[in-house]
Amino acid sequence: MNSEEERKVLFRQFCNSEKNMPVYANPWWLDAVCEPSNWDVLIFSVGDEPVASMPFYLTRRLMINVIKMPVFTQALGPYIKYPEEISPQDKLGLEKKIFSFFIENLPHAGAQFHNFHYSVSNWLPFFWKGYRQSTRYTYIIDDISNTIRVFDNFSYAKKKNIRKAEKEVKIKFDMSASEFYEHHRNTLRKQNRKIVYRYDTFERLYQAAYNNQAGRIIYAVDGSSVIHSAIFCVWDRVSGYNLISSIDNDYRSSGSSSLLIWELIKMLSGKVQKFDFEGSMDEPVENSFRQFGTTQHPYLRIFRIDNPILKIAYSFIPRSTV
């Protein structure tokens, strides 16, 4: 196997050539959310040509190596460049070969957690090697090219919220990283909740997204310059993503958060095909996302915990936070 540096160089080239590569799998994203020394990648090649990749984030818990999902990152599983017109049976055979290679070459870890992109439905080779699986969901507008049709598919309540918000707030762009972080921390504090990500990590991602022209902050302000809500959105060549929403509970009734989503869809229409709300297992959040005319897409959470100490430790932690 190539050295880590060689793998990362090859991976950068592979990402640049693949139009369907999710934003989360890009090296610039991983450098920001993991820091460069804390992630690595496996490359499966045919001859000298890479055809599949699997980046991973290696950290430690209780002095034990753990592979887990980085902060802000919805999916980070295998990506395969399939041959054109591959048959279903050949597709499964290729996946078995590639997934077996990844499983054999992942570094030893006391626990592993991998979220696969919703386009990956086969995890059987992982099951054969002792991994377990749980299903999570994201909500997606699959085609945002026709914004009139997109708006028509919104629920009556969403349309009403948007029209109300258009009268109460103005839309602005490009709030600074520090302003967004403080707004989000303050809105969570009003709900007796704490912010779960560090400012330095968010700032790195903010700068990387802006530098790569793959992210932007949009926010809604009233006539008194009060920020009602803000969204940090990122995108790749296929989808836009509702990455982080900050909604002030004191002004939730203004409907500004729905208006921000609508403005993002209009901004991204023609640039990407889809809009991904990033999903939630929370019932109220699911209800809100569904009202934007979305379709539900399941994605796989694959995990294996081998270390007995970590088995006990993780039994007390909600699965969604590890």
Structure description:
With 322 residues, this protein is an alpha+beta fold. It folds into two domains: 4-136 and 299-321, Aminopeptidase; 143-272, Gcn5-related N-acetyltransferase (GNAT) (Aminopeptidase), CATH 3.40.630.30. It has eleven helices and twelve strands. Strands 1, 2, 3, 4, 5, 6, 7, 8, 9, 10, 11 and 12 form a twelve-stranded mixed β-sheet that branches. Helix 9 (256-268) links the parallel strand 10 and strand 11. The radius of gyration is 20 Å and the shape is globular. It starts with a helix and ends in an 8-residue tail after the last helix. The model has no long low-confidence stretch (mean pLDDT 94).
Please supply descriptive tags for the structure shown above.
37% helix, 12-stranded mixed beta sheet, Aminopeptidase, 27% strand, 2 domains, 322 residues
The structure class reads: alpha+beta
Strand count, sense and barrel status of the largest sheet are: 12 strands, mixed
Helix/strand order: HHEEEEHEHEHHEHHEEEHEHEH
Question: What distance lies between the first and last C-alpha atoms, to the nearest angstrom?
Answer: 29 Å
At the fold tier of CATH, the topology name of the largest domain is Aminopeptidase
- In terms of DSSP E residues, the strand content is 25-35%
Q: Supply the CATH superfamily name of the largest domain.
A: Gcn5-related N-acetyltransferase (GNAT)
Total individual domains: 2
**Total strand segments:** 12
* CATH-scheme architecture of the largest domain: 3-Layer(aba) Sandwich
What is the CATH C-level name of the largest domain? Alpha Beta
- Roughly what is the average pLDDT, rounded to an integer? 94
Number of helices: 11
Helical content class: 25-40%
Uncertain ranges: none
Global morphology: globular
Rg, Å, rounded: 20 Å
